[in-house]
Design goal:
The protein has three helices and 29 strands. By secondary structure, it is mainly β. It has a nine-stranded antiparallel β-sheet with strand order 2-5-4-8-9-11-7-6-20, covered by helices on one side. The chain has a six-stranded antiparallel beta barrel with strand order 14-15-16-19-18-17. Strands 23, 24, 27, 28 and 29 form a five-stranded antiparallel β-sheet that branches.
């Protein structure tokens, strides 16, 4: 069922995003992993349909939009990504496979509401043989775009990071939470990971390995034909989205009419999808954050501990700049260390980012006396140069 028709562009809602319903929907459930072996079918749907004007089909480009592929199909947009020559949309690679090219530029991708041109498919991973992603990218032209994922007719989430679902340990990668909004299913469905190394054989000479197998919660629509390429994300504590992958395949009954309700979906991991298309995820550009836990003075030394994360590149270790005797810019000497040591407590309280974001270091310095120690996390993701003074800093030590 389509959303009620709306006119005009999609704008940010004025009301605050409610975490209560999202948190309840994303509560963990246990499923039987023994059903993880079924093979998916390609989940394309033939169109065109009557072009609706609701916000999901038109307006600002974001994840979860209906996009027309070629002249006869539609799929779902995944995320906004960065690549050579500008910003692109990313969707499932099989969406544009084996379609007649629109012209010498290749297969065209359109905004479904008014069939205005986004651009042409540039890179696809969907080739005969064994692949590790089902993804392709297309130019976005001059149409507006934002690093958001569609949530409902009045809401969206801001994409702040990407991550591997394997890192959502509780205490194993299985049963990690993720959600999907597709152009066909319309409403958000949430489910649990039952496999982090699933293989999908599509029956046309293409096999995709290293995928996520997901079972949707009872009562949710789940993935449907036409949801291919849709954004699969995790939810942060503040209601933001962590990109986890792209919807790819699903189980279908023997008549092949539709995806099996409650069946397994196969998700192309976000890191594989970006790497094989030569792109990077566009995020909201949030600054790094963390804590300066301790500082201890010694004989010509300072020892510091703490942790730091850049939410835009949450899998990457950060540089930490330590200033002895004053803040950055004061003339105090600075020292660079790296936040890459094992901190499982940080990983447990920050889903999908992994356990290696701590720092423990002893610095040799010529400064003496009782002095402040300032620690800064150096931004590396969507907001490079956004350097954050860590909480708990400065701390005072006596250096003999």
């Amino acid at each position: 069922m389509l959303l009620a028709a709306q006119t005009g562009d999609f704008t940010k809602p004025t009301g605050a995003f409610s975490l209560a319903s999202a948190a309840a929907k994303r509560s963990k459930q246990t499923y039987d992993p023994s059903i993880a072996g079924a093979e998916p079918a390609i989940d394309l749907v033939v169109g065109p349909e009557a072009a609706p004007t609701d916000a999901q089909d038109g307006g600002t480009f974001m994840g979860g939009k209906k996009v027309g592929i070629g002249t006869a199909y539609y799929c779902t947009s995944g995320f906004v990504v960065n690549g050579g020559g500008g910003e692109y949309g990313i969707t499932a690679g099989h969406c544009g496979s084996n379609l007649p090219i629109s012209n010498s530029n290749g297969v065209a991708v359109h905004r479904y509401a008014d069939w205005s041109l986004y651009g042409y498919i540039q890179n696809t991973t969907y080739n005969i043989g064994v692949q590790t992603a089902d993804a392709e990218v297309f130019h976005l032209g001059s149409l507006p775009r934002e690093p958001w994922v569609w949530n409902t007719a009045t809401s969206y989430r801001t994409v702040v990071a990407q991550a591997d679902a394997e890192l959502a340990t509780d205490p194993t990668p299985l049963y990690a939470m993720m959600c999907l909004v597709g152009a066909r299913s319309i409403t958000e469905s949430c489910g649990n990971v039952i496999s982090t190394d699933a293989t999908a054989s599509y029956g046309n000479g293409v096999t995709v390995t290293d995928m996520l197998g997901v079972v949707w919660h009872a009562g949710d629509v789940g993935a449907q034909k036409g949801d291919s390429g849709g954004p699969v994300d995790g939810l942060t504590a503040d209601g933001s989205a962590i990109a986890l992958g792209l919807q790819s395949g699903c189980q279908v009954p023997s008549d092949g009419a539709e995806c099996t309700p409650g069946g397994i979906s196969y998700v192309s991991k976000i890191n594989n999808s970006l790497n094989l298309t030569g792109t990077s995820l566009k995020t909201a550009g949030r600054p790094p954050y963390g804590w300066h836990d301790t500082a201890t003075g010694g004989g010509g030394t300072v020892s510091v501990t703490g942790w730091a994360i850049d939410p835009d590149l949450s899998l990457s270790p950060l540089q930490i700049h330590v200033y002895v005797g004053g803040p950055a810019g004061s003339g105090a000497p600075g020292y660079a260390i790296t936040a890459n040591t094992y901190r499982p407590d940080v990983g447990a309280s920050n889903p999908y980012i992994g356990d290696y974001h701590g720092f423990t270091s002893t610095i040799t310095t010529s400064v003496r006396g009782t002095v402040p120690i300032y620690t800064y996390a150096i931004g590396i993701g969507g907001a490079p140069g956004s350097n954050t003074l860590l909480q708990g800093s400065p701390r005072y030590v006596t250096i003999s």
